[in-house]
């Protein structure tokens, strides 16, 4: 449930205050959920122990009630020590949560295939191992400290228990000497006291185990409650199947735990069937409105509207079901090419092939041994590896596969050269917008594309371009108008052409003509 919550609200993962929760997230499923069975086992043992104690108590009670009271007193110190030991163990697990999470992360980074090239190239294994050892040393120190404290408490408990046992036997002797209890009964009582003490101490240990496991299980229950509290109630408003206009009105946004506004009163208008491009320098705030549009973040101020409906009134899951979002850091799922495109929504062959063709995957899939059914993970038998650019086409196909009115591409083409990206988006635009696509290959309904790119020649395809600078929209309009303004856009465009354009070719020609 915790992970679902984190997936539901990516902003949680951006909030440093979330990380103690991350510790819970790591601890709760392994320690908390697993403790449910241990609580049940310990409870059964407690019931069995109580039955044993009841038998001994019956015998002692019949011999002399004082013996029964003394037996309970004799077992109390050991019981107290066990409870204290349990609490100490629980506190240490809490204390070590962050270290343990760091250790797991380092462990994965050292062994992961994705990190292996950099680990080797930079010779980072020693450094990472040293980091791992440092965390392990902290953990070891804490565990040793715990063991020492627990041993101290146990020794103290046992000492008091031995003392109390001495008092019980002394009392029994006195009862014998003063003739309160005859010799035969005293012998039986001595035996019963011995058995009773052992049973009672074992019972205390079981109770303490039950108590400790109960603490972890309470952790789990608390975390579930928290997750439920933070999961929003589905809004009654359904997302309309399409829209005429999406508007961002004076939208401002700061990431959690930050007072820096990364978006400052941003206004945008996105019409059905348009291509909208967001451009600007690194960190200017292009991805952030895309994430807000994609329904992954909520604006701090003002709103996004689908036609007349604020998105806050639409069920977030229903809204996201209307959007195909291809993020910068897309996922390379260890699944087949088909499953990577379908993302859990299997609808037969035709839409997969159409999305793959639109993303330029045709020749790539033709070379795979099982076509779309080839596993794209070399860690498993028969798995194949794709190049960075080919993986990007898979991610784009995943977005295109969705039968949705809004497609958002957040720079998913960085691994492609400028010409390939331009050609891809020219083709995608033709298909999804129905502009000059081969007959029968255009989408039934024109869709809307929001494209974030550093490649100005791709931005040039857009009907409207928004230029961002430090979280503000500083220019907007169509390519020709922006070039005529001779502002930031024109500067970025000329710079891009100077760096990327080949001496001849479509990209340069179109850019030069327009510029
Ligand atoms: N998850 C996050 N948590 C906190 N701050 C963030 C987060 N993502 C982005 N930022 C900050 O928000 C600002 C805008 O980031 P954004 O990713 O929107 O820019 P961008 O224009 O898309 O950048 P780039 O071109 O480098 O991808 C940056 O200053 C960045 O530091």
Could you give the topology of this structure?
Blueprint: H1 2-8, H2 10-14, H3 19-32, H4 35-63, H5 65-111, H6 116-121, H7 125-177, H8 183-230, E1 245-254, E2 261-271, E3 275-280, H9 287-293, E4 301-306, E5 309-310, H10 316-320, E6 323-326, H11 337-342, H12 349-358, H13 362-366, H14 388-401, E7 406-410, H15 418-433, E8 448-452, H16 456-459, E9 464-469, E10 472-477, H17 479-485, H18 488-500, H19 506-514
Bound molecules: adenosine-5'-triphosphate.
Residues 14, 255, 258, 262, 280, 282-288 line the site of adenosine-5'-triphosphate (ATP).
Subcellular location: Cell membrane
InterPro entries: AAA+_ATPase, ABC1_TM_sf, ABC_transporter-like_ATP-bd, ABC_transporter-like_CS, P-loop_NTPase, Type_1_exporter
Pfam family, one: ABC_tran
Mean pLDDT across every amino acid position: 82
Largest sheet: 6 strands, mixed
Order of helices and strands: HHHHHHHHEEEHEEHEHHHHEHEHEEHHH
What is the CA-CA span between the terminal residues? 53 Å
- What is the share of helical residues? 55-70%
Q: What ligands does this structure carry?
A: adenosine-5'-triphosphate
Number of helices: 19
Please report which band the strand proportion falls in: under 5%, 5-15%, 15-25%, 25-35%, 35-45% or over 45%: 5-15%
CATH superfamily placement of the largest domain:
ABC transporter type 1, transmembrane domain
**Biggest sheet, spatial arrangement of strands:** 6-7-8-3-9-10
Question: What radius of gyration results from the CA coordinates?
Answer: 34 Å
